[in-house]
Design brief:
Length: 262
Amino acid sequence: MKNYLYSLLVFCFTFLVHCENINAQTSTDIPEDFNKLSELFLQKIIDKENTQELQDIFANTNIATLDKALDSNAKRLAFWINIYNAYIQVILQKNPELYDDRGSFFKKEQIKIAGETISFAKIEHGLIRKSQFEYGLGYIRKWFPNKFERKLRVNDPVYQIHFALNCGAKDCPPVAIYEWQRLDEQFNKGTQQYLERTTDYDPSTKVATISSLFNWFRGDFGGKGGIKKILKNKGFIPTTKGIDLEYQNYDWTLDLNNFIEL
């Protein structure tokens, strides 16, 4: 009887040690590089390859794992911009008619990430703009964002995202593959190129005609004063004083496969 109990105790102890070793090994496994996966997602779309396996990885991870992987502001910005731009292409290439009702399209929960099904509006305003109220012009934050949003949102939002996000329209910025290590460089190039295409200044009237993006998200740019500083720093107006701003009509014509390298 004593030999039996002793053998049982040894077995239990060995089993527990084995389990602990497995748990320790799992916890130290190299986690998925979700930034690289988001880059690959867009590259496969550009190359017209199937992306379902990547979509499954994004869907089946969990919040804690994704939160741990996206451990810097740059990683979060690059990841969510790539995810947003990629799913615009994936969904609208398959069902372009969804764009006929853009209001419903952007609000519809149709993107599976970390066990949740979220909308384009959630990614843009909740995760990339750090819980901004969609119609608050960049001045009003949401009071009670959910756990998913609080855990995975960008910590320090930047205005350049408005020249990186592509919502499928002709007047949107083109789609680039954003790499967190080169994010500032890419943001600077993308912003400059977009503003060159959409900005016009008449020195005789001192009127700068600019994208409606500046109007819709004016708080993100620091208001009219901040907008003028950006335009001056980028070389589009000579001064911030005495300049009037006018906003162009936005062309919402569907325009997919608009890619660029930055």
